[in-house]
Amino acid sequence: MSTPSGLREFLTSRRAAIDPASAGLPPSTAPRRTPGLRREEVAALAGVSVDYIAKLEQGRIGNVSDQVLDAISDALRLDELERQHLRALVTPKSRRPAPPPRSSRMHARPSLRTLVDTIPNPAMVQGPRMEILASNQAMRTVLTDWDAMPRHERNIARWLFLAPEARTRYVRWETVAATTVASLRAGHDPRHPDEALERLVGELSVASPEFAAYWADYRLFKHTHGTKKFFHEAVGEFALNYDTLDIPDSGGQILCAYTPDPGSPSEEKLALLLSWAASTEPGAAPTPARHVEGHGPGPR
């Protein structure tokens, strides 16, 4: 993923994402074989030669000045996350920092697991490859019972694309799927190989054409905060806000916590769902949504 092919994939994907008309370019007299900007158009916008862009995409450029890199980033309309990624991709091996310590099999430290268990709303600790390292009962009720899975299957990306129930749990599955893959990419430092991540990507690309397509898009995304909509048979649809916090000295782990808006119908539904989960024996069928007045499933 830190090879010249990775740099080429990233740059060509960013070119393809830009509408030439939106970049202020005149209509082309020749039909375009592929969507987006041509190399010569990027070169013109960045003020460099076409040959330079071609060599850069092929990984045949040595040191790239900050000025040129900024000009190319501006031409490709890169956001801050994408700019950092491009800088990492073009950093020569001789100048790359030492890779951070990162085990292929991560664990959440006991104090973090205790912290997650004390949070009343859904919360979990994720590793940099989307591993679920710790989750509380509320989180397992909203999504799925991670503890019941073999350890190697406790991965949000794997579950999202391979488990049919994931498409029910998330109301906007396609949006969540796209941002999850983009976040998986963004969480990897392209300057350092990650065999465990490459195995996961290879497995999911073979098992899920949708994952392969999202991965090929080469989008980058960082989960910081936002809102997601969920569905559960017992209460129907509800919305939760999420906030993620980087955990220092953890090898890239994050704490992700979900909360409903105070006084909202979603807060009521979450409380009802967690109360139901606490009083239901494992393996018992959930209370049908029609038995909860006003809490049945809405439009999907």
UniProtKB/TrEMBL annotation:
Residues 36-81 form the HTH cro/C1-type domain. Residues 16-35, 88-109, 281-300 are annotated as: Disordered. Pfam families: HTH_31 (PF13560), MLTR_LBD (PF17765). SMART domains: HTH_XRE (SM00530). PANTHER family: BLL4672 PROTEIN, BLL4672 PROTEIN-RELATED. This is Helix-turn-helix domain-containing protein.
